[in-house]
Amino acid sequence: MHGEARPPEDDRRRAAVAVVLHDAPSPRVLLMKRAERPGDPWSGHISLPGGRYQLGDGDLRITAIRETREELGIDLEGTRLLGKLEPLHPRSSGPTGIEVTPFAFATEVALEPVCGPEALAAFWLPLDLAASGALDGTYTYPATAVAFPSWTYEGHVIWGLTRRILDLMIA
């Protein structure tokens, strides 16, 4: 049989994201706008870099590092791992769907992203501005007409799992 090696069923439901932080001039987090792709439920959304676990990753930390390199051309190997958060489920997938583990990394300098084919844009969000309430709003997801808390920064709407993860980081 030919084709790509796939992780066991449980591993295909595991993913990791990188919460890339930089402190100067104030705490910031790296976000990206996902490319528009048919069949991708997060197509065009603002997200943290990351994706599904693949065989050969070894662990989910490596998944977060690999995906950040693929999506934004940033190698996190030389950065400081601050830790990881408990796994979360996107509300759209429910508890039996994909499980996302966030890993926080600190960089000495504001790394310059180079978007790969999976990213349309990347930017640094000031966390103090997000925490202040100045960016607060509501986003209504068109597919379900459900309203979610959101932040809007420079025209980018940050909502859903990305917003939930960042809320945990600044709480």
Task: Describe this protein's structure.
There is one protein chain. The chain is of the alpha+beta class. The chain has four helices and ten strands. Strands 1, 2, 3, 4, 5, 6 and 7 form a seven-stranded mixed beta sheet that branches. Strands 8-9-10 form a three-stranded antiparallel beta sheet.
Features:
171 residues, alpha+beta, Nucleoside Triphosphate Pyrophosphohydrolase, seven-stranded mixed sheet, 4 helices, 20% helix, globular
In the residues, how many domains can be counted?
1
Q: Residue-averaged pLDDT, rounded?
A: 89
Per DSSP, the total helix count is 4
CATH-defined fold name: Nucleoside Triphosphate Pyrophosphohydrolase
Question: In CATH's first tier, which class applies?
Answer: Alpha Beta
Strand/helix succession = HEEEEHEEEHEEEH
The proportion of residues in beta strands is 35-45%
Give the low-confidence spans: 1-8
Q: How far is the N terminus from the C terminus?
A: 49 Å
What profile does the largest beta sheet have? 7 strands, mixed
Q: Helicity range of the residues?
A: 10-25%
Shape: globular
The fourth-level CATH homologous superfamily is Nucleoside Triphosphate Pyrophosphohydrolase
Number of strands: 10
Strand-pairing-aware structural class: alpha+beta
- Named at the architecture level, the CATH assignment is Alpha-Beta Complex
Using the CA coordinates, give the radius of gyration: 16 Å
